[in-house]
Write a structure and sequence with these properties.
This protein has helices spanning 2-24, 29-35, 43-58, 67-83, 92-98, 106-122, 127-130. By secondary structure, the chain is mainly α. It has 2 domains: 2-98, no CATH class; 103-129, no CATH class.
Length: 136
């Protein structure tokens, strides 16, 4: 089963790379999704997404999306086309923001900082303020 999951993951990445290449050629996401016979956005979701993007394009700086965010939005077009907008908590697009890359200690540092702040708040004798950091 693990082997099958790895194959599916690699195929998904390959499909996304192909879709990104087609999109960079100027082919609209809806047409690309139709090539695969898939388009998961409902008409209402597509209309709301179109309205949100029009609103963003008409917004003054600093509220308008920068080129980096516009590029990221194109990637979201692909996710929306293939996955729709359903249980966002479990979709790939949410993991894009929530999960650090493997080996990244961002969450560990955050947890240590939270623990430190908690201890500091309860340190009525100022032990943390009187202790020097260890050399080791």
């Amino acid at each position: 089963m693990k082997y099958l999951n790895k194959i599916v993951t690699k195929l998904n990445k390959l499909a996304i790379a192909c879709v990104v290449a087609l999109q960079q050629l100027g082919i609209p996401p809806k047409f690309i999704a139709s090539l695969f016979g898939i388009f998961e956005l409902t008409n209402l979701e597509a209309a709301e997404l179109k309205l949100m993007r029009a609103d963003n394009r008409s917004a003054p700086n600093p509220f308008r999306a920068s080129p980096i965010w516009v590029s990221l939005a194109r990637k979201f077009d692909i996710w929306f086309a293939f996955e729709g907008i359903k249980e966002v908590e479990y979709q790939d697009m949410n993991a894009f923001f929530a999960n650090p890359v493997p080996g990244n200690h961002k969450l560990l540092r955050y947890a240590c900082w939270m623990l430190y702040q908690n201890l500091k708040a309860r340190d009525k004798y100022n032990v943390l303020g009187n202790v020097n950091p260890s050399v080791n």
